[in-house]
Amino acid sequence: MLELDDPLWSELDTAFGTAEEVPELLASLLHEYDEEILQELTELLLHQYTIYTATVAAVPYLIQIAETSSLSVRMELYITCGMMVLGYAAQATTIAKTLASEQWEPLQRAYADALERINTLHDSVLHYARTHIDDPSEQEYILAAWLAYGHHDTLAELILHHTGEQEYEGTCPACEQSFYAVVSDDGTMTLSPDDPVFAQNAKHNEIIPAELPSAGAWGALRYAAEQMNARVLLQRLPSMTGTGTCPHCHATIAIADSLC
Questions:
Q1: Of 134, 174, 188, 217, which one's alpha carbon is 20 to 30 angstroms from that of 247?
Q2: How far apart are CA 160 and CA 255, in angstroms?
Q3: pLDDT at 92 over 80
Q4: What does the pLDDT read at residue 164?
């Protein structure tokens, strides 16, 4: 890990400039967890889900804190680092160009080593969520982080950006027009040609549900949702992985491949 007194911190960037203050904030968290300090760090390192060179340097410390903290704190850091990992997958190539290779490569190695250690925390986080977290939105943040750690980036983005929502936007691969997959109270879903908020009388097409997925990204999502007893999402999965008729061109579409 990059030592907290290393002068390189002054060359790393955050959302609001250089990272001189980040080592002090990390040192404070290492001494004693404080939610306000974590929020301040998150604003610097993960502003609007964008990551920075200082984010990569800070992740090993945040995972170290998660390893030694209470389960409630571990879960918060698990989610925060998961969102950073998701950002890294999309942005690492770009931010790497802002540093010399001899500066970037040690940061990248320490980051990768830290992610190996996160694998030891999955079970404890999922078990804690099962017994302490009932809110579906908070469950979905945990699931998005779980997917990010497993490199299921596209599905992680889908879950993250629709957290707590009752509809998912998609695009028909045949006609390339947008549609909405609308969730009913029982978790079943239908397809609407327009945003149901503004087109309440639009005709909806039925989605034919699939068997619960057992492989790939959707299988990983199912596994974690079952471990957490995330009932709301589990009710939706058969429709999210089912098939339906496009409300525009009437082509048969695979819902999972069409959501965005």
A1: 217
A2: 18
A3: yes
A4: 86
User: Token pair 């967890």 is at which residue?
Assistant: 33
3-state secondary structure of 183: strand
- The encoded tokens of residue 42 equal 């998150």
- Do residues 118 and 14 touch, judged by C-beta distance below 8 A? no
Which token pair is 250?
């009437």
**Token representation of residue 123:** 């079970």
Amino acid at 113: D
Locate 174 and state its tokens: 């045949």
Question: How many angstroms separate the CA atoms of 228 and 122, rounded?
Answer: 11
Residue 226 CA to residue 18 CA, distance in Å, equals 42
- The model's pLDDT over 140-180, given as tens digits with 9 standing for 90+, comes to 999 999 999 999 999 999 999 998 888 999 999 999 999 99
State pTM to two decimals. Answer: 0.93
φ and ψ at 171, to 5 degrees?
Answer: -130, 130
Which residues have C-beta within 8 Å of that of residue 20, sequence separation ≥ 6? 9, 10
One-letter amino acid identity for 36?
E
Cβ of 129: how many Cβ atoms within 10 Å?
Answer: 24
Contacts 24+ apart (CB under 8 A), 195-202: 195/167, 196/167, 202/247
